[in-house]
Write a structure and sequence with these properties.
The protein is α+β, with helices and mostly antiparallel strands. 34% of the residues lie in helices and 17% in strands. The strands form 2 sheets. Strands 1-2-3 form a 3-stranded mixed beta sheet. It has a 3-stranded antiparallel beta sheet with strand order 4-6-5. Strand 5 (148-153) and strand 6 form a beta hairpin. The chain starts with 5 loop residues before the first helix and ends in a 42-residue tail after the last strand. The relative contact order is 0.15.
Length: 207
């Protein structure tokens, strides 16, 4: 369901950020706005608004280091403050220095490269474990490529996406390489283990 009171939610997030900036002595400023939920986010109601938080300032580069680890952490805390259901985590989005747009382009290129590899070899390809938002991005790119399909395996911080030849999700998936620090998503608790049959995120289930 959508965030019931966007103005109140924005005030709560602003209060949190003010405390972080003040207590941390950070040179950061922020702008909070709302926008329609992006296409492909299937686990929130139609018409929902996303609370966007754009961070800038001299200390903004530290937010995007290690794969955006600190940026993701701030976003995760804000989600907890707003007490959003796991299916509603896409309703809050933190960004800095256009990090997410640049990351999306990287993900698109990686997905297209993996798909070409799978079509040529006829064998599945496993991406390193990543958070649910990035897995959804991968799913959406793969969905538009002929001859391949995707599914997610693993649980917790080890949940990862596999690209299969179309109609061949029964093939064993290779064990993925572990990612560098900052990629994992701590919200995947309770998902199926690595040895289970693939379970489709269909554009993203919960992390």
């Amino acid at each position: 369901m959508p965030i019931e009171n966007l103005q109140q939610a924005a005030q709560q997030v602003a209060s949190f950020l003010n405390s972080v900036v003040r207590l941390g002595g950070l040179r950061l400023k922020y702008r909070i706005s709302a926008s329609p939920l992006p296409e492909g986010s299937e686990h929130a109601e139609a018409g929902s608004q996303v609370l966007n938080v754009e961070l800038a300032g001299p200390d903004a580069p530290m937010l995007t280091q290690r794969g955006g680890e600190l940026l993701r952490s701030l976003e995760h805390i804000a989600i907890q403050i707003l007490r959003l259901d796991p299916r509603e985590h896409d309703l809050v989005s933190f960004d800095a220095l256009n990090f997410k747009a640049l990351r999306l382009q990287e993900i698109r290129t990686a997905a297209e490269t993996a798909a070409a590899r799978v079509r040529e070899s006829g064998m599945p390809y496993s991406f390193p474990p990543t958070n649910s938002r990035e897995r959804r991005m991968l799913h959406l790119v793969i969905k538009d490529i002929e001859g391949v399909e995707s599914a997610s395996l693993g649980e917790g911080q080890e949940r990862y996406l596999v690209v299969y030849p179309k109609g061949k999700t029964h093939l064993p998936a290779p064990v993925p390489a572990m990612p560098s620090r900052g990629y994992g998503d701590r919200g995947d608790r309770g998902d199926r283990g690595r040895g289970d049959r693939p379970r489709r995120d269909s554009g993203y289930g919960r992390r």
